[in-house]
Amino acid sequence: MKKEPPDREVQESPRFSRGEEVKTHRIDVGEATVVIRELAGSAAGPTVALLGGVHGDELEGIAAVRAIVAHLSADPPQWSGRILAVAVANPPAHEAGTRTSPVDDGNLARAFPGRADGTVTERIADALAQRVIRNSDLLIDLHSAGLNYAMPFFAGFSDPTGRPAAHAFGAPLLWAHDRLNPGRSLTTASSYGVPSIYVEGGGGGSLRRSELLGYRDGVLRVLGRLGMLAAADVPAGTGPQRILRGGDGDVDSSVSASVSGWCVTAVRAGDQVRCGDLVAEILDGDGLPAEEISAPHDGTVMMLRRRAEVEPGVGIVMLGPVAEEVSWQ
Length: 329
Description:
By secondary structure, the protein is α+β, with helices and mostly antiparallel strands. Helices cover 20% and strands 27% of the residues. The strands form three sheets. A ten-stranded mixed beta sheet has the order 1-2-4-3-5-9-7-8-10-19, sandwiched between helices. Strands 6, 11, 13, 16 and 18 form a five-stranded antiparallel beta sheet that branches. The longest helix is centred in the middle third of the chain and has 17 residues, at 209-225. It is globular, with a radius of gyration of 20 Å.
């Protein structure tokens, strides 16, 4: 059962009239300002929280949150409920174009639920936890691979309450985790009794129309499943899906290079590999192989180094479990 929050920092919105569909809340956390866009539909319904830009170099979630806000407000379809949308969850990192914050080197994706009296990153996490996640009935945290890596387009969840939303999102790949590390937004959502999912995409510093539409339409499909959108306004499903079962999805636990050089990948994000398969090799300054990176076990390539230049300790590949075929639900 969802835990009742003691006091809602973002109050329930009244029904808006045309032209007043969006309210803006600016939360000052010292050296940064978190902007929350609050949208209310034409009738009461669930509250869905959308986060983008938890890592500053991940553009897909930022663009998708903005697209959803525009879709539901500029020429709004008939919909119910409420959206709490944060396109840029980590303003310092976004402004710098970096994964972590240049202010305190904090990783927002490992800082939840944060601290009101902590570092800038911890204060941002606290603001998002208390004023957005705690006040929602579902959290959707939109990520991607960032500048230096590639990932397949997928939706992940841990708590079983997130499974229906992950299926409804419609990504071709799902990841059902059996555990999540502390500090993640989904872990905090679970502590509040709030169902949650996260999404990953290609990354690389570019935006692909097909993937951006996948993010936007996926969120709209989730809203449709919650009864917030009329059936006629819900995009069609995308067909068969594959699912990975188990693991924590921690990208920081990837197989790393032990030498400097250029990384040459031998597989693609989303590929199935067998134990011992060549995943990548590191070339030295003379163009000769200095190290081979092989798959440590059978699995699915869920993160792969994109940028060629590497140093010892840089992650090269993260494998998830072997994917299984499932039917669209």
